[in-house]
Amino acid sequence: MNDDSHKRDKPQKKRFIAGAVCPRCSAMDRIVNYREDGKNYRECIECGFKDEIRLQSSPQEPTTRVTAADKKEVQETPVKIIQPPKK
């Protein structure tokens, strides 16, 4: 038995979405999210409403000074420290 057939036999793991409201029956906290055949679905356990969740694009990490996309080469230049004359 290969690993692919074993993965198909396992029951799908369904997770509740906290605070989600069903678009059909307006029941709160009754929506579960699960993945089936490479697609994401949401389903209401109260009324049976089911639809596919289509994500437009994967979320992108915001660019910050720590995660800057274009790493510019910083050129170091020596500095000469001058002491002020004593009066």
Please give a structural write-up:
- With 87 residues, the chain is mainly beta.
- Helices cover 8% and strands 21% of the residues.
- A hairpin with a 2-residue loop joins β2 and β3 (39-44).
- The longest helix has 7 residues, at 3-9.
- The radius of gyration is 28 Å and the shape is elongated.
- The model has no long low-confidence stretch (mean pLDDT 81).
What's the gist of this structure?
The protein is mainly beta and 87 residues long.
Task: Give the radius of gyration.
Answer: 28 Å
Number of helices: 1
Number of strands: 4
What's the main sheet like?
A: 4 strands, antiparallel
Q: Which parts are unreliable, with pLDDT below 50 for 5 consecutive residues or more?
A: none
Termini separation (Å)? Answer: 90 Å
What fraction strand? Answer: 15-25%
Strand order of the largest sheet: 1-2-3-4
Question: What would you call the structural class?
Answer: mainly beta
Give the helix level as a range of percent.
under 10%
SSE run: HEEEE
- Note the overall shape: elongated
| Mean of pLDDT | 81
